[in-house]
Amino acid sequence: NPLVKRLERLRTSKEARQEEGHVLVQGIKTLEELASKGHHRIRTIGITFDEHNLPIRSPALDIVASVRRQELEDEGSNRGSSIAAKASAAATAAKSSQRRQEKIFQADQFVAMSRSLTTKILGTDSPSGEHEVWAEVVIPNYDHLFSIQDNTTTIDTTTTTTAVTPGFKVHNSTQRSKEVPLPQSPRTDIQRLLILDQILDPGNMGLIVRSAKAFSWDAAWHTPGTVDQYNNKVVRASRALCLDWPTKTGSWKELEKFVERKDLTLLVADMVPGWISDRAVSDAIPTSTSVQDNNDFNLYNLVWWNWPKSLPRTRVPERIALVMSSEHHG
């Protein structure tokens, strides 16, 4: 099946994700969180469906109920100006929404497929349940944060004909635009940048993303060779938070220009050499916010070589770029 092959390639190929600008996520909770944020465009929502194992249960049932509510709303709109018809459809949708706590999921298309096809799409590392939910999500456009002028890239949303195979059904949304801008992050500036150099393990990358989000780091810069932030294992380890963390991959030369343009003070996460630690102890370097101007070697237990000339010594820089690497790369 063409759709199954395409989605499987999204999971396994970085090139496919870059070409299409899409990524796969799994689980109803993840889907609910993405939908609630309002700026994520969902291309496809899929559920596991087995006609020999009825009835359909949650979480897949929540998706089916959402589609049905949208159909009822569309039917009410298509009946013209009949107030009674619209009121009836609205009342039916309202009752259904109350039963399902008004879980509304918007997508370009909805698909139902067998458990075996779902497993093929999601992989054996993500075992699918009997009533699984997954989605194909558009990667948000963060170009404006990294000073790239053209941030109005559009994606093709034309309907494609999918051959119907056993255990596979497609429901296309009735409201689909032909040209839609990529979802854009509401953030407008980067003040705290995390530079990730040669981070290779997807699990570690996922944990870094979650920690960085928790500590309010604005964005990440990946040097060449760093694991793809939208790698399937990174998506799972980060609980899909990677979709809300602006990222750019670029060379050190590009990074140098970007840091200078954004007026970011560069920091490096590394083990402090012994001779520096010994000097810090002997000099009794203070760590409070009350710092003398002549204390220019070690402030706040950090080694400084590039203190901003425009910044007084009474507080640490607020606009910073922190370089982190893996254990194998120093």
UniProtKB/TrEMBL annotation:
Residue ranges that the Swiss-Prot or TrEMBL entry lists as coiled coil: none
MF terms in GO: RNA binding; RNA methyltransferase activity
Transferase found in the keyword field: yes
Keywords, sorted A to Z: Methyltransferase, Transferase
Domain (tRNA/rRNA methyltransferase SpoU type) ranges: 193-270
Transmembrane residue ranges: none
Gene Ontology biological-process entries: methylation; RNA processing
Record Pfam families: SpoU_methylase (PF00588)
Name of this chain's protein: tRNA/rRNA methyltransferase SpoU type domain-containing protein
Organism: Entomortierella chlamydospora
